[in-house]
Design brief:
There is one protein chain. β13 (311-314) and β14 form a beta hairpin. A seven-stranded mixed sheet has the order 9-11-8-12-10-13-14. Strands 1-2-7-5-6 form a five-stranded mixed sheet, with helices on one face. Strands 3-4 form a two-stranded antiparallel sheet. The model has no long low-confidence stretch (mean pLDDT 93). The relative contact order is 0.18. With 335 residues, it is of the alpha+beta class. The protein has helices at 15-29, 68-82, 102-119, 174-183, 200-209, 223-235, 250-259, 278-288, and strands spanning 40-44, 47-56, 62-63, 66-67, 85-97, 122-131, 139-149, 165-168, 215-218, 238-242, 272-276, 298-304, 311-314, 320-322.
Length: 335
């Protein structure tokens, strides 16, 4: 039963978030275009577009590898890319706390300019509000994006099929680990930098290799583990992972080991989960290894017809264990 008050867990991307969407938002907003995917696919004239929106409230607003401005472009661009849509246009909305330094705001805007240029999108409109001191924590940004769907591409979390391979486009957990170290006084020194990056180029290279890709998902809140549970539920399939094949940066692995965290449930801002036919998987990984942001891509598992809705891990000693259902709040405000 859903709690009668909103908690931080409702924004974490796990079970409570799904319940909130299902019982509140979907209950009131449902229509034929309403989607559980990263962006809605809409018919416009003779073509199809993808449209999405995302809010960013990361704390701290600056972190190794970027800031909230870079994040606000990457997050929305990547959601469009996951649907096979070339990002074209963005709008942005700022809610700024009274007293926020103007030089920091200009730095955020500069990051947005550079990242949008790399992603090939134009920021075409926006809105600015200033809230009283203490009503907002520094600055919040919302971006909305529109992209053009590429011909012959059909991806969705509901399209995974038994026998498919599960791929990640890079090492996992770096963004969540970066935010944790930047925020908390843990006394841990580790060379960890967020993987925050615009990924249309990564997706475009995969689509040039094959358009026979069933699922592409941005593994942000809740990490790869949460995304895999979402795919398993939407496609009514099981997923089996090979622990030894999952790429994790050495520093991230060390931090997780010290704190008892699982990198599968830490956020990423530059890593995608891809589900594709097994016979296409190796070619996709070879393509990804040539990319700017996907040199650590790997096949990490397969889709099965057993234990629908569940994710199972084969450990490094050959035992099988059920991955825990994602829930609760690990790191508030990671994006």
């Amino acid at each position: 039963m859903m709690e009668n008050k909103v908690t931080l867990a409702h924004g974490a991307g796990g079970r409570q978030t799904a319940e909130l969407i299902e019982k509140v938002f979907k209950a009131h907003f449902a229509n034929p275009e309403f989607t559980a995917d990263d962006a809605a696919i809409l018919n416009v004239g003779d073509g199809r577009i993808a449209m999405t929106t995302d809010g960013f409230i990361v704390s701290p607003f600056e972190f190794p590898g970027g800031n909230i401005g870079k994040l606000s472009i990457c997050g929305t661009v990547n959601d469009l890319a996951c649907m096979g849509a070339k990002p074209l246009y963005l709008t942005c909305s700022f809610i700024i706390e009274e007293g926020f330094p103007l030089d920091k705001l200009e730095e955020i805007a500069s990051y947005m300019e550079k990242t949008a240029a790399e992603a090939g999108v134009k920021i075409v409109a926006g809105d600015t509000k200033v809230a009283g001191k203490g009503q907002v924590d520094n600055v919040f940004i919302t971006t909305t994006g529109i992209g053009k769907l590429q011909e012959g591409v059909h991806t969705s979390g509901a399209f995974a099929k038994p026998g498919d391979a599960v791929i990640v486009t890079g090492d996992i957990g770096r963004h969540g680990c970066t935010i944790l170290l930047a925020r908390e006084n843990l006394g841990i020194e580790a060379d960890v930098k967020s993987d925050c990056a615009p990924l249309w180029g990564t997706v475009e290279s995969m689509l040039e290799t094959t358009k026979d890709i069933h699922v592409i998902r941005d593994a942000t809140r809740g990490g790869v583990g949460t995304v895999l549970y979402e795919i398993a539920a939407e496609s009514k399939v099981g997923i089996r992972l090979d622990a030894s094949s999952i790429p994790v940066d050495g520093a991230v692995r060390g931090v997780c080991g010290m704190l008892g965290l699982d990198p599968l449930y830490l956020a990423n801002e530059g890593t995608l989960v891809v589900v594709a036919p097994k016979e296409k998987a190796q070619a996709l990984v070879e393509t990804l290894h040539k990319g700017k942001y996907s040199g650590n891509a790997a096949i990490i598992g397969e889709v099965t017809d057993t234990m629908p809705g569940k994710v199972v891990m084969t450990t490094e000693i050959g035992a099988e264990t059920l991955l825990p259902q994602p829930g609760g709040e690990l790191l508030p405000r990671i994006c």
